[in-house]
Amino acid sequence: MMTALGDPTRQAIFDRLSDGPSPVGELAEGLPISRPAVSQHLKVLKDVGLVTDHREGTRRVYQVDGAGLAVLRTYLDQFWQRSLAAFEKAASEQKGKNDDPDD
Amino acid sequence: MMTALGDPTRQAIFDRLSDGPSPVGELAEGLPISRPAVSQHLKVLKDVGLVTDHREGTRRVYQVDGAGLAVLRTYLDQFWQRSLAAFEKAASEQKGKNDDPDD
DNA sequence: GTCTTCGGTAAGTGATAGCTTACCGTAAGT
DNA sequence: ACTTACGGTAAGCTATCACTTACCGAAGAC
After folding, report:
1. N or C: which end of chain B has fewer CB within 10 A?
2. CB distance from A2 to chain B under 8 Å?
3. How much is the pLDDT for B102?
4. What is the pTM of this model?
5. Is the per-residue pLDDT at B53 higher than 60?
6. Cα separation of A62 and A46, whole Å?
7. Within 7 Å: CB of B59 and strand D?
8. Contacts of residue B69 in chain A, CB cutoff 8 Å?
9. Distance (Å, rounded) from C-alpha B80 to C-alpha B74?
10. What share of chain A is helix, strand, coil (3-state, %, to 5)?
């Protein structure tokens, strides 16, 4: 999931989809790469659950998957929580060893 | 920044550092790769501002940078916000065209 | 029916990224 | 002073990955 957003192009696509659903061709127009390349990126994003797709006539519309985004957010929050805990722990330990503010 | 955490190994390192500061050698022991490889990953993480380092005797201790983590979080929140807006927009548009809950 | 639009898939290529070993600098111990 | 511990950097190799063109299937327009 994180690796999926690791690629800048995929990030750009996901970024674009965050503004609303879009068909493949329309996405490709705003990017400096070919349409098949966009398709391949979309496949990756879809496989990790960050986007969903559905047919709409002859085109295929992609949009961000809220559930996938939630997973990503939760994942990031874990880092956040643990890092915060580590900070506090370090701070208290630091406090213990120099509550003498002389140096 | 996102590309920095895109690599699984770097993710593992960052994950480990989220539990508290650690010197390079100690990190390398818990990973299936060589110590120089860990050093290289740490350099990447440091360059994007996700970790900081300081000397401690003969070892170099790394720890997650709270500011960098905050940036990452803010970045993710942007996706979240915009996606949410897109969802609501789509929902209201959908509602307009079939407020007849028959089918 | 035919034609056109749209997009996924296959095959092939080139660049990049992660890994290794070898080496060197720096700080502490003796 | 010498030795050891620790870790950053260089050089080189390999595999992965993003991209291209070519092709084909599916759904609408005529």
Report:
1. C
2. yes
3. 44
4. 0.88
5. yes
6. 9
7. yes
8. 79-80, 83
9. 10
10. 60, 15, 25
Radius of gyration from C-alpha coordinates of chain A: 21
Determine how many CB atoms are found less than 10 A away from the CB of residue A90.
13
A42 CA, C11 C1': Å apart? 20
Share of chain B above pLDDT 90, in %: 63
- Does A97 touch chain B if contact means CB atoms closer than 8 Å? no
Query: Chain B residue closest to A14 (CA)?
Result: B79
Q: Which of A7-11, A23-27, B88-92 has the lowest average pLDDT? A: B88-92
Q: Look at the block and give the residue holding tokens 């329309």.
A: A26
Side chain identity at residue B10, one-letter code: R
**Average pLDDT taken over every residue of chain B:** 88
Task: Answer yes or no: is pLDDT of B99 > 70.
Answer: no
User: What 3-state class would DSSP assign to B81?
Assistant: helix
Asked if A80 and B86 come within 8 Å (Cβ–Cβ), the reply is no
- Answer yes or no: is A2 CB < 7 A from strand D: no
Contact B1, B48 (CB under 8 A): yes
Please, are residues B40 and B27 in contact by the beta-carbon 8 Å criterion?
Answer: no
